[in-house]
Automatic annotation (TrEMBL):
Residues 11-157 form the Vitamin K epoxide reductase domain. SUPFAM superfamilies: Thioredoxin-like. One of its GO terms (molecular function) is oxidoreductase activity. Belongs to the VKOR family. The chain crosses the membrane at residues 69-93, 105-126, 132-155, 162-184. This is Vitamin K epoxide reductase. Its main location: membrane. The keyword Transport does not apply. One of its GO terms (cellular component) is membrane. Keywords: Disulfide bond, Membrane, Oxidoreductase, Quinone, Redox-active center, Transmembrane, Transmembrane helix. CDD domains: VKOR_1.
Length: 327
């Protein structure tokens, strides 16, 4: 009598479990992408004095090629979901041979994708802990999703050659790290903003080394070009208002984007009360300002640091747009 070896439960349920985890990843990154693209702030509670999700998402690491990092995460999770459920959706009429080929191919693609996600998430966890020194539950959850998917991918089937897994992990991991360092190579963590050269734009990252001066904040160290000055004048002409607090690093980042000459043209309203900096002024309370900086334009409020291209698009600005800096 021939006894067939029973299929381990992990092999039966690995793909559905990966599909479920990628579904959670889609919800996670989809929410962050929506908030970032609409100028909102994600719901995030952190202990007092600890940087939170908004600080992380508005940092230089939160943007890649001018788009929210969460958007690329969303697309990655969607791709992983398709790879996980594709064989499950195959009609049995297509034949076992075709199904087996697709299963084998998708497993390898899942492995490569999961390794890439895990290595990249590991780098971001390092940035979160040592560079930003912040707490972002959405980021931590995404990292856990990536590691879980990798674990299920490795344990979810019988691999003919385990050595190939380690070899693949080594190659894919190295390529991922090299690509990651290349993408973020222009981030200046010292807090000093270099002037652009050869017509290139420079990404800013403000890391306060000194305490801000009451009612003044930090010194604006960037200079303005004609595009920044013209945009600032346009914003004033249409009645745009920026609500700020002198102690707010993100408000200073917005100033750095404009440069010292252009920012003089901006109609900015100080919300920090002179007597109690933590208490907003009546004007800001009446305007229902909940975070800094906040822009009020054409009857709508836009929270957080806005890249100048975004401000130009929102307000219908049609002047020169070769802006020197981006966030």
């Amino acid at each position: 009598m021939i006894h067939r070896r029973s299929t381990p439960w992990i092999h039966k349920w690995s793909r559905p479990l990966i599909g479920a985890i990628t579904g959670l990843g889609i919800l996670n990154t989809g929410y962050l992408t929506f908030e970032k693209l609409t100028g909102g702030n994600p719901v995030c509670t952190t202990p007092e004095g600890v940087k939170g999700c908004t600080d992380v998402l508005s940092s230089p690491w939160g943007t890649v090629f001018g788009q929210p990092l969460a958007l690329f995460g969303l697309l990655t999770y969607i791709g992983m979901l398709l790879l996980a459920v594709a064989p499950l959706a195959l009609n049995s009429v297509e034949g076992n041979k075709n199904r087996k080929q697709i299963e084998n191919l998708t497993w390898w693609l899942l492995l490569v994708g999961a390794i890439t996600m895990s290595v990249f998430s590991g780098y971001l966890m390092y940035v979160l802990a040592f560079q930003l020194q912040a707490l972002c539950l959405y980021c931590i959850a995404s990292a856990l999703f990536a590691v879980s998917i990798l674990t299920l991918t490795i344990l979810g089937r019988d691999w003919e050659d385990i050595g190939q897994i380690f070899f693949t992990a080594l190659i894919v991991g190295m390529v991922t790290l090299i690509t990651t360092f290349s993408i973020y190579s222009d981030i200046n963590t010292s807090g000093n903003i270099a002037e652009p050269t050869d017509g290139k734009t420079v990404q800013i990252f403000f890391d306060a080394k000194e305490e801000p001066k009451p009612q003044v904040g930090w010194q604006i160290t960037t200079t303005s070009g004609e595009s920044e000055i013209q945009l600032a004048k346009h914003l004033t002409q249409i009645g745009a208002k920026e609500y700020v607090a002198w102690w707010c690093p993100h408000c200073h980042e917005q100033k750095l984007l404009f440069g010292k000459e252009a920012y003089k043209e901006i109609n900015h309203i100080e919300c920090a009360s002179p007597d109690n900096p933590g208490t907003p002024t009546q004007e800001c309370i009446a305007a229902k300002i909940e975070s800094y900086p906040s822009w009020v334009m054409n009857g709508k409020t836009y929270s957080g640091v806005q890249n100048l291209n975004e401000l130009a698009k929102i307000t219908g600005y049609t002047g020169p747009q070769n802006f020197k800096y981006f966030k």
